[in-house]
Design brief:
heterotrimer, A alpha/beta, B alpha+beta, C alpha+beta, A: alpha/beta, Glutaredoxin, Rossmann fold, Ubiquitin-like (UB roll), 4 domains, five-stranded mixed β-sheet, B: alpha+beta, Alpha-Beta Plaits, 2 domains, 10 strands, about 25% helix
Chain lengths: ~550, ~240, ~170
């Protein structure tokens, strides 16, 4: 395929789509599949057939439409109108009234001017609700593979990296390491073979951003990986997806086949000398494999046990070769940056954290779902304007950001701006983007216990502080919850948390105590009220025993 | 070969390129406690006892895998490090079933030595009293998993030196265990060569010779360095220094 | 321990042909151990000792390596499962929305804990980390179908249905 072929294909597909007056896009992501979108799809199809409207409209399964709690969702391009809680009856009415008579179905309509939509800025999710998740032609019609074509035909690898660096793209998987810098190290590494790896082992409970991207727009990730491969000089990529995401795995398999068929993956892409293959590796249920060195070991068929860094994967990764490893969302940002230029990207978000971030909001919130917002947005805006706040009759207590490695952000810090550095100042972290809203019906000590149990179960067992330390942290929290712990136990817990954080081998152990440390910092009273009064009847703690805040490296 | 000059605990030392902080410290008789580390085997970096502070970084670094850089300033025994090392040994003591008084290696045990070194006079964490298995099916040796600290020296020596790969780790987290082949009785292992290297390198009484009574079993792990040097560098004569 | 010959499995079990095909696809590379274990579990339902010996032979891996990998990942099962599986999501969103209440009632109803199978071998209770349907919390996966916004009563009712199925057949 040449660049001209690609553009021709795009125009042909655009013309095909223009023939239809309406495009009905039903959400075919796992959330809506669970809400029963199959029945909706069948009814839509039946109704279109019966009313003989197939020349007027086409029906497409698309990526996540965002409002996962209100599913199944259906989007009609004319209007444009988004419908919620669509059941079979509503599906028929949409076809009969909206398509047939041009009248919207008011009962199911969602106001698109609602802050849920208005506050968002879509880059990674730009194709959600626009294209068929299983069609490479539709992706190409939406400027897909245009960035890869540009990189291969107009740019040398150094220019690609320089563009990513100028854009200021930072790793979306957690710590926010500059992507361009990482690529540059791999590019400079001298080796006969290099690799590109995509971390799609989205293990944080409460996070489903990567899953939605893989299910709704898989080609975007493949394109990003191929560009990375060209930039660093790798001809082989691996996507490591967790086994819990069967739909994402299916869609990826389909997408890889489609791309290979069109010559967008394989040998001599766009008639250049660049060859690139992508293989899928399926995880098997181990949270620790989200840690990059553990993930690489798992790709090589081993126990997912992290290794001491350095050496970093960019020097010695898969089979000891230089390896780029980024997560799904990072790769999803690459193509738009090359298409629109680094200046465009750098102007979005904040200076230190440019671009957008996808969050999955869930928990005690009125409108759980998938959102994409510019970096630097106030947390309050995410939770109250977009998420709609907590359910009636309850009060907001904390937002848990960053999964088990993250921390809880209380009411007094609601005005914090969401970027990498700010979140760390309150002991939380960006993590991969899971955001759980907790209201006053939850006890924070029990929340901490939940996270510590998670970390204990997911510890790989390699280093002593994490293997044994997380067990004791969990046992002590259990003792506190049961009301059997004393002040001494509480002091020991705090001491242990700091020690596990500082001495553990990998990111899992180093961040495992964060849930406890942050709840002790902001919700100390809830701990104190559960402690047994000591013999002197004195539960007052002196200041020197409070948990020191450990600075992040 | 370039030489690096750096500081450990206020004194200047030089290191050859590729040396780790631990190697330089050992060569200069600076004590840094270790458990999973064994000269001659690959480094594992898991016990975290050898962590040191490096000026300019808030993080701690394992001395066994960290290589010094020019004018690096390393501290090996600050109060914080001593406290953490003590806690690590404390955690180990609570994890297994370690009863020195009835143990075959009483008096010759690396875990016991560590406990003395860090002045562990009591354990503040509740003992976990795990129910681990004892396997005496092998004709010469016994494995008592109650005394295992999961340092994986046995796994590494069996794979890297004997090349039989009898041992590996099964399970995850606190449930990790050393297993032979398909988690079968050691005596039925088709791959075990009965060489006994795993028994020699085990730092505790988890692996021991059959018939050894309390305090009788003395380990001798220094021979691994000898074997590896003999193979790689053709140094067939053991020096007194290596005997220790 | 009997070491079955790679290829032509002595049992004559055709399922080994399927497994061999996967092994060939991955060039019998030891690095593909996890992929092969996935395939093997898909074909045989769980990883029996003989099956692991077969795989170790085919991929030229030490037995203990295969066993170590199989027990590291929660997805792999070394024991057979019940007829039905009830996978409860214990992710944070589901936790906040009361998954632990469902867990308690279901365990009470089944008389066994999560990670176990009922005595009649009818239902296996499994807990999952996060199935990624957080917008619908609390969530369970009942025989591969996701049930969102699940209540305690509904969970127990669905399990009861499975259990009564058997009685009807027996009657």
């Amino acid at each position: 395929m040449t660049v001209e072929d690609l553009r021709e294909l795009a125009e042909k597909e655009q013309a095909r789509q223009a023939e239809y007056e309406h495009r009905i896009l039903y959400c075919s992501s796992a959330g809506c599949v669970s809400s029963g979108c199959d029945a909706v799809k069948n009814e839509l199809k039946k109704a279109i057939g019966e009313l003989d409207l197939s020349k007027k409209c086409e029906m497409i399964g698309t990526g996540c439409l965002g409002l996962c709690g209100e599913g199944p969702l259906v989007f009609v391009s004319s209007g444009p109108t988004l419908y919620q809680h669509v059941d079979a009856a509503a599906a028929r009415r949409i076809v009969e009234e909206h398509i047939g008579q041009g009248k919207k179905v008011k009962e199911n309509e969602i106001d698109l001017n609602d802050p849920f939509f208005a506050s968002q800025k879509k880059i990674v999710l730009e194709n959600m609700g626009k294209i068929n998740a299983e069609s490479i032609e539709e992706y190409i019609a939406a400027d897909g593979y245009e960035a890869l074509a540009k990189a291969l035909t107009e740019m040398i690898p150094e220019e690609v990296i320089s563009e990513i660096r100028k854009a200021g793209l930072r790793g979306r998987g957690g710590a926010g390491y500059p992507t361009g810098l990482k690529w540059d190290i791999v590019r400079k590494g001298v080796a006969d073979q290099k690799y590109v790896v995509c971390n799609a082992d989205e293990g944080d409970p409460g996070a489903f951003m990567d899953r939605s991207v893989l299910e709704g727009d898989p080609h975007r990730v493949l394109e990003g990986m191929a560009i990375a491969g060209y930039a660093v000089g790798a001809n082989q990529g691996f996507i490591y997806v967790r086994a819990e995401y069967p739909l994402a795995i299916d869609r990826l398999k389909t997408a890889i086949k489609q791309a290979e068929r069109l010559g967008l993956l394989g040998n001599g892409i766009f008639e250049s000398h660049f060859n690139f293959r992508i293989d899928i590796r399926i995880g098997a249920g181990a949270f620790v494999c989200g840690e990059e060195t553990a993930l690489l070991r798992s790709v090589m068929g081993r126990r997912g046990r992290p290794k001491v860094r350095p050496p970093y994967p960019s020097e010695k990764g898969l089979w000891d070769k230089p390896t780029v490893i980024n997560n799904v969302e990072t790769y999803a940002n690459v193509a738009p940056i090359l298409r629109n230029g680094s200046g465009w990207f750098a102007a979005i978000g904040t200076q230190k954290s440019p671009g957008t971030k996808v969050f999955a909001i869930a928990g005690n919130v009125k409108r759980p779902g998938l959102i994409e917002v510019p970096m630097g947005i106030a947390l309050r805006k995410i939770i109250f304007d977009i998420g709609g706040g907590t359910p009636e009759g309850t009060k907001f207590k904390a937002a848990q950001a960053g999964g088990p490695s993250g921390g809880c952000i209380p009411t007094e810090h609601l005005d914090i701006l969401v970027d990498y550095e700010s979140l760390q100042t309150v002991g939380a972290m960006m993590g991969s983007g899971g955001m759980i809203v907790i209201d006053d019906t939850s006890n924070m000590v029990e929340v901490a216990k939940y996270f510590s149990e998670f970390c204990m179960d997911e510890s790989c067992g390699k280093c002593i502080p994490c293997r044994v330390g997380t067990k004791h942290i969990y046992m002590m929290l259990d003792k506190i919850v049961k009301g059997e712990a004393t002040e001494n136990d509480f002091d020991l817990l705090k001491e242990l948390c700091v020690m596990v954080k500082e001495t553990s081998l990998c990111g899992l152990g180093q961040s495992a105590p964060n849930g406890v440390i942050s709840t002790v910092r902001f919700f100390k009273d809830e701990y104190l009220s559960k402690l047994k009064k000591s013999a002197e009847g004195n539960t007052h703690l002196n200041e020197s025993s409070s948990v020191p805040v450990v600075k992040e490296a | 070969m370039s030489v690096i000059t750096f500081t450990i605990d206020g004194e200047q030392y030089s290191a050859k390129e590729g040396d780790t902080i631990l190697q330089v410290a050992r060569d200069n008789k600076i004590p840094i406690p270790t458990l999973c580390y064994l000269e001659g085997l690959s480094t594992f970096g898991a016990c975290r006892l050898c962590v040191v502070e490096i000026e300019g970084s808030p993080k701690l670094f394992p001395a066994c895998t960290t290589k010094p850089t020019e004018s690096m300033v390393v501290r090996t025994s600050t109060d914080k490090l001593k406290k953490y090392r003590r806690m690590i040994v404390e955690l180990l003591a609570s994890e297994g079933n370690h009863q020195c008084a009835v143990c075959v290696v009483n008096g010759h045990c690396e875990l016991q030595d560590l406990a003395y070194e860090v002045e562990l006079d009591h354990v503040r964490f509740p003992y976990l009293f795990p129910k681990k298995s004892l396997d005496a099916t092998h004709k010469d040796f016994v494995i008592d998993r109650n005394r295992c600290v999961l340092c994986t020296r046995c796994v590494r020596v069996c794979h890297e030196v004997e090349a039989a790969h009898v041992w590996d780790i099964a399970g995850r987290g606190i449930d990790c265990e050393i297993i032979a082949d398909l988690n079968q009785p050691w005596g039925t292992s088709p791959s075990c060569t009965s060489c006994g290297k795993c028994v020699r390198v085990c730092p505790t009484g988890a692996l021991f010779d059959k018939g050894a009574a309390v305090g009788e079993m003395q380990k001798e792990s220094g021979f691994i360095k000898f074997i590896v040097n003999a193979r790689n560098k053709h140094e067939w004569v053991r020096t007194a220094h290596e005997e220790e | 321990m009997v070491q079955p010959e790679p290829k032509n499995h002595p049992s004559g079990d055709n399922r080994f042909k399927l497994l061999d095909r996967a092994i060939t696809k991955y060039h019998a590379s030891g690095d593909a151990l996890i992929e092969i274990l996935h395939v093997a579990q898909g074909i045989f339902g769980f990883l029996e000792n003989d099956l692991m010996v077969y795989i170790a032979n085919a991929l030229k891996l030490p037995l203990s390596r295969v066993y170590g990998v199989a027990t590291f990942y929660h997805f792999f099962r070394l024991k057979p499962q019940g007829e039905h599986t009830f996978v409860l999501c214990t992710g944070t969103a589901c936790y906040v929305k009361g998954a632990n209440e469902i867990q308690k009632s279901v365990e009470h109803h089944c008389g066994c804990k999560f990670g176990e199978t009922t005595k009649d071998n009818k239902v296996s209770l499994i807990s999952a980390r996060c199935v990624g349907s957080c917008g619908l919390a609390p969530v369970a996966v009942l025989d591969d179908a996701v049930a969102g916004k699940l209540t305690t009563n509904e969970a127990v009712r669905r399990i009861q249905q499975w259990q009564e199925e058997k009685k009807e057949v027996a009657a």
